[in-house]
Write a sequence for this structure.
Protein backbone atom coordinates (compact mmCIF):
# COMPACT_ATOMS: atom_id res chain seq x y z
CA UNK A 1 0.00 0.00 0.00
CA UNK A 2 1.15 3.54 -0.74
CA UNK A 3 0.96 5.66 2.42
CA UNK A 4 1.35 9.43 2.80
CA UNK A 5 2.45 9.88 6.43
CA UNK A 6 1.86 13.47 7.51
CA UNK A 7 4.09 13.99 10.53
CA UNK A 8 6.88 11.51 9.96
CA UNK A 9 9.41 12.89 12.42
CA UNK A 10 7.26 12.89 15.58
CA UNK A 11 7.41 10.19 18.23
CA UNK A 12 4.55 8.21 16.64
CA UNK A 13 5.37 8.89 13.00
CA UNK A 14 9.05 8.03 13.32
CA UNK A 15 8.16 4.82 15.14
CA UNK A 16 5.64 3.86 12.49
CA UNK A 17 7.97 4.16 9.48
CA UNK A 18 10.19 1.09 10.02
CA UNK A 19 7.22 -1.07 11.03
CA UNK A 20 5.22 -0.02 7.98
CA UNK A 21 8.25 -0.48 5.72
CA UNK A 22 8.87 -3.96 7.13
CA UNK A 23 5.26 -4.83 6.30
CA UNK A 24 5.91 -3.90 2.65
CA UNK A 25 4.22 -0.51 2.53
CA UNK A 26 5.59 2.33 0.38
CA UNK A 27 5.85 5.43 2.58
CA UNK A 28 6.13 9.11 1.80
CA UNK A 29 6.73 10.92 5.10
CA UNK A 30 6.55 14.65 5.73
CA UNK A 31 8.62 16.87 7.98
CA UNK A 32 8.74 20.61 8.55
CA UNK A 33 12.52 20.65 8.85
CA UNK A 34 15.07 19.85 6.13
CA UNK A 35 17.48 18.48 8.74
CA UNK A 36 15.13 15.51 9.25
CA UNK A 37 15.39 14.30 5.65
CA UNK A 38 18.24 11.83 6.20
CA UNK A 39 16.62 10.55 9.40
CA UNK A 40 13.35 9.73 7.60
CA UNK A 41 15.15 8.14 4.67
CA UNK A 42 17.24 5.95 6.98
CA UNK A 43 14.08 4.73 8.71
CA UNK A 44 12.59 3.63 5.42
CA UNK A 45 10.50 6.51 4.06
CA UNK A 46 10.66 8.83 1.08
CA UNK A 47 10.99 12.23 2.82
CA UNK A 48 9.35 15.46 1.74
CA UNK A 49 9.64 18.85 3.47
CA UNK A 50 6.16 20.32 3.83
CA UNK A 51 4.48 23.25 5.55
CA UNK A 52 0.94 22.01 6.16
CA UNK A 53 -0.29 25.62 5.96
CA UNK A 54 1.00 25.92 2.39
CA UNK A 55 -2.05 24.38 0.75
CA UNK A 56 -0.79 24.36 -2.87
CA UNK A 57 2.52 22.77 -1.86
CA UNK A 58 0.72 20.18 0.27
CA UNK A 59 -1.73 19.30 -2.50
CA UNK A 60 1.09 18.88 -4.99
CA UNK A 61 2.96 16.59 -2.60
CA UNK A 62 -0.05 14.37 -1.98
CA UNK A 63 -0.82 14.14 -5.68
CA UNK A 64 2.80 13.24 -6.41
CA UNK A 65 2.77 10.48 -3.79
CA UNK A 66 -0.54 9.09 -5.15
CA UNK A 67 -1.28 7.33 -1.85
CA UNK A 68 -3.96 4.78 -1.03
CA UNK A 69 -4.01 6.10 2.54
CA UNK A 70 -3.20 9.44 4.18
CA UNK A 71 -2.02 8.85 7.76
CA UNK A 72 -2.44 12.07 9.79
CA UNK A 73 0.04 12.08 12.69
CA UNK A 74 0.63 15.84 12.72
CA UNK A 75 0.95 17.69 16.04
CA UNK A 76 2.53 20.98 17.08
CA UNK A 77 3.58 20.52 20.69
CA UNK A 78 7.36 20.83 20.48
CA UNK A 79 7.14 24.19 22.29
CA UNK A 80 4.27 23.00 24.52
CA UNK A 81 2.00 25.44 22.68
CA UNK A 82 -1.60 24.23 22.91
CA UNK A 83 -2.86 27.12 20.75
CA UNK A 84 -0.49 26.10 17.94
CA UNK A 85 -1.68 22.51 18.24
CA UNK A 86 -5.32 23.60 18.10
CA UNK A 87 -4.60 25.64 14.96
CA UNK A 88 -2.98 22.60 13.38
CA UNK A 89 -6.00 20.45 14.21
CA UNK A 90 -8.32 22.96 12.59
CA UNK A 91 -6.52 24.64 9.69
CA UNK A 92 -3.80 22.05 9.11
CA UNK A 93 -6.30 19.21 8.99
CA UNK A 94 -8.55 21.18 6.64
CA UNK A 95 -5.62 21.59 4.24
CA UNK A 96 -4.65 17.92 4.50
CA UNK A 97 -8.21 16.72 3.85
CA UNK A 98 -8.54 19.09 0.88
CA UNK A 99 -5.23 17.83 -0.52
CA UNK A 100 -6.35 14.22 -0.12
CA UNK A 101 -9.66 14.95 -1.84
CA UNK A 102 -7.89 16.74 -4.71
CA UNK A 103 -5.68 13.68 -5.16
CA UNK A 104 -8.69 11.30 -5.09
CA UNK A 105 -7.43 9.51 -1.98
CA UNK A 106 -10.07 7.22 -0.57
CA UNK A 107 -9.01 6.91 3.06
CA UNK A 108 -7.51 8.83 5.96
CA UNK A 109 -6.47 7.79 9.46
CA UNK A 110 -5.96 10.43 12.14
CA UNK A 111 -4.29 10.70 15.53
CA UNK A 112 -6.82 11.86 18.11
CA UNK A 113 -6.98 11.65 21.91
CA UNK A 114 -9.05 9.65 24.40
CA UNK A 115 -9.30 12.29 27.15
CA UNK A 116 -11.59 14.74 25.34
CA UNK A 117 -14.88 12.99 26.08
CA UNK A 118 -17.62 14.77 27.95
CA UNK A 119 -17.60 14.07 31.68
CA UNK A 120 -19.11 10.76 32.82
CA UNK A 121 -19.00 8.21 35.60
CA UNK A 122 -18.06 5.20 33.43
CA UNK A 123 -15.19 4.60 30.97
CA UNK A 124 -15.99 6.36 27.71
CA UNK A 125 -16.83 4.38 24.58
CA UNK A 126 -16.43 5.63 21.05
CA UNK A 127 -20.07 6.68 20.61
CA UNK A 128 -19.95 8.98 23.64
CA UNK A 129 -19.74 12.69 22.75
CA UNK A 130 -16.43 14.51 22.78
CA UNK A 131 -16.09 18.12 23.86
CA UNK A 132 -18.39 20.16 21.64
CA UNK A 133 -16.77 22.96 19.67
CA UNK A 134 -13.23 21.83 20.46
CA UNK A 135 -10.43 21.78 17.91
CA UNK A 136 -10.46 18.02 18.33
CA UNK A 137 -14.11 17.81 17.27
CA UNK A 138 -13.36 19.98 14.23
CA UNK A 139 -10.40 17.77 13.29
CA UNK A 140 -12.36 14.53 13.56
CA UNK A 141 -15.32 15.96 11.64
CA UNK A 142 -13.01 17.10 8.82
CA UNK A 143 -11.36 13.69 8.51
CA UNK A 144 -14.75 11.97 8.52
CA UNK A 145 -15.63 13.82 5.30
CA UNK A 146 -13.34 11.37 3.53
CA UNK A 147 -14.95 8.36 1.85
CA UNK A 148 -13.31 6.15 4.48
CA UNK A 149 -11.99 7.41 7.83
CA UNK A 150 -10.39 5.83 10.89
CA UNK A 151 -10.03 7.89 14.08
CA UNK A 152 -7.57 6.53 16.65
CA UNK A 153 -8.12 8.12 20.05
CA UNK A 154 -4.85 7.47 21.82
CA UNK A 155 -4.54 7.56 25.58
CA UNK A 156 -1.80 9.50 27.36
CA UNK A 157 1.42 8.35 25.72
CA UNK A 158 4.29 7.03 27.81
CA UNK A 159 7.47 5.13 27.02
CA UNK A 160 10.59 6.01 24.98
CA UNK A 161 10.48 9.39 23.26
CA UNK A 162 7.39 10.63 25.15
CA UNK A 163 7.05 13.30 27.85
CA UNK A 164 6.95 10.48 30.44
CA UNK A 165 10.33 9.00 29.49
CA UNK A 166 13.11 9.46 32.08
CA UNK A 167 14.67 12.89 31.56
CA UNK A 168 11.69 14.22 29.60
CA UNK A 169 9.22 16.96 30.48
CA UNK A 170 6.83 15.07 32.79
CA UNK A 171 9.56 13.03 34.42
CA UNK A 172 11.52 16.18 35.25
CA UNK A 173 8.45 17.89 36.69
CA UNK A 174 7.64 14.89 38.91
CA UNK A 175 11.26 14.63 40.05
CA UNK A 176 11.12 18.30 41.00
CA UNK A 177 7.94 17.71 43.03
CA UNK A 178 5.84 19.97 40.83
CA UNK A 179 2.99 17.53 40.07
CA UNK A 180 0.50 16.75 42.86
CA UNK A 181 -1.46 13.49 42.95
CA UNK A 182 -5.14 14.36 42.50
CA UNK A 183 -8.28 12.27 41.89
CA UNK A 184 -8.18 13.17 38.15
CA UNK A 185 -8.41 10.02 36.02
CA UNK A 186 -6.10 9.20 33.09
CA UNK A 187 -6.08 6.42 30.50
CA UNK A 188 -2.52 5.60 29.45
CA UNK A 189 -1.07 3.73 26.48
CA UNK A 190 2.53 2.70 25.80
CA UNK A 191 4.07 4.14 22.64
CA UNK A 192 4.88 0.63 21.40
CA UNK A 193 1.20 -0.31 21.68
CA UNK A 194 0.21 2.86 19.82
CA UNK A 195 2.49 1.95 16.92
CA UNK A 196 1.22 -1.63 16.81
CA UNK A 197 -2.42 -0.54 16.93
CA UNK A 198 -1.95 2.06 14.20
CA UNK A 199 -0.40 -0.46 11.82
CA UNK A 200 -3.11 -3.01 12.59
CA UNK A 201 -5.83 -0.37 12.11
CA UNK A 202 -5.05 -0.24 8.40
CA UNK A 203 -7.11 -3.44 8.19
CA UNK A 204 -9.88 -2.42 10.60
CA UNK A 205 -13.36 -1.24 9.59
CA UNK A 206 -13.92 2.51 9.38
CA UNK A 207 -14.73 4.33 12.59
CA UNK A 208 -13.30 5.57 15.88
CA UNK A 209 -11.28 3.42 18.28
CA UNK A 210 -9.96 4.13 21.76
CA UNK A 211 -6.32 3.03 21.91
CA UNK A 212 -5.78 2.86 25.66
CA UNK A 213 -4.67 0.31 28.22
CA UNK A 214 -6.99 -1.68 30.46
CA UNK A 215 -6.64 0.36 33.64
CA UNK A 216 -7.79 4.00 33.77
CA UNK A 217 -6.64 5.34 37.11
CA UNK A 218 -6.62 8.48 39.25
CA UNK A 219 -3.31 10.22 39.77
CA UNK A 220 -3.51 9.25 43.43
CA UNK A 221 -2.83 5.68 42.22
CA UNK A 222 -0.53 6.01 39.21
CA UNK A 223 1.57 9.04 40.12
CA UNK A 224 3.19 7.56 43.27
CA UNK A 225 4.19 4.46 41.28
CA UNK A 226 5.54 6.57 38.43
CA UNK A 227 7.54 8.72 40.83
CA UNK A 228 8.94 5.67 42.60
CA UNK A 229 9.96 4.19 39.25
CA UNK A 230 11.93 7.33 38.50
CA UNK A 231 13.54 7.36 41.91
CA UNK A 232 11.73 10.65 42.57
CA UNK A 233 10.19 11.87 45.85
CA UNK A 234 6.64 10.77 46.56
CA UNK A 235 4.15 13.36 45.24
CA UNK A 236 1.96 15.44 47.49
CA UNK A 237 -1.72 14.48 47.61
CA UNK A 238 -4.15 17.23 46.63
CA UNK A 239 -7.80 17.72 45.83
CA UNK A 240 -8.82 19.11 42.46
CA UNK A 241 -9.64 22.82 42.35
CA UNK A 242 -13.31 23.70 42.48
CA UNK A 243 -14.89 23.09 39.07
CA UNK A 244 -11.81 21.39 37.58
CA UNK A 245 -12.56 18.38 35.34
CA UNK A 246 -12.12 15.06 37.11
CA UNK A 247 -11.12 13.30 33.94
CA UNK A 248 -12.64 10.18 32.50
CA UNK A 249 -11.10 6.89 31.53
CA UNK A 250 -11.80 5.23 28.20
CA UNK A 251 -12.68 1.67 27.25
CA UNK A 252 -10.55 -0.27 24.75
CA UNK A 253 -13.20 -2.96 24.19
CA UNK A 254 -13.84 -1.99 20.57
CA UNK A 255 -10.14 -2.16 19.61
CA UNK A 256 -9.76 -5.47 21.43
CA UNK A 257 -12.79 -6.81 19.55
CA UNK A 258 -10.97 -6.34 16.22
CA UNK A 259 -7.85 -8.09 17.49
CA UNK A 260 -5.66 -5.49 19.20
CA UNK A 261 -3.95 -6.76 22.34
CA UNK A 262 -1.71 -4.27 24.14
CA UNK A 263 1.71 -5.58 25.11
CA UNK A 264 1.38 -3.35 28.20
CA UNK A 265 -2.22 -3.87 29.36
CA UNK A 266 -1.58 -1.63 32.36
CA UNK A 267 0.74 1.26 33.13
CA UNK A 268 1.84 -0.77 36.16
CA UNK A 269 3.81 -2.98 33.77
CA UNK A 270 5.15 -0.25 31.48
CA UNK A 271 6.25 2.59 33.77
CA UNK A 272 10.03 3.01 34.22
CA UNK A 273 11.76 1.25 37.09
CA UNK A 274 15.00 2.32 38.77
Amino acid sequence: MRIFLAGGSGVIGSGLIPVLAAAGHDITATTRRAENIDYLRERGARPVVIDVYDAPQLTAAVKDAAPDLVLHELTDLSDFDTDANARLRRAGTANLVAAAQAADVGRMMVQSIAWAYEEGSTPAVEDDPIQAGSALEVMEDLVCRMPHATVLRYGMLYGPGTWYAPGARMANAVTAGLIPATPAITSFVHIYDVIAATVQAIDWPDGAYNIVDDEPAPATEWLPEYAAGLGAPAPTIADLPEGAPRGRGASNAKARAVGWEPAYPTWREGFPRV
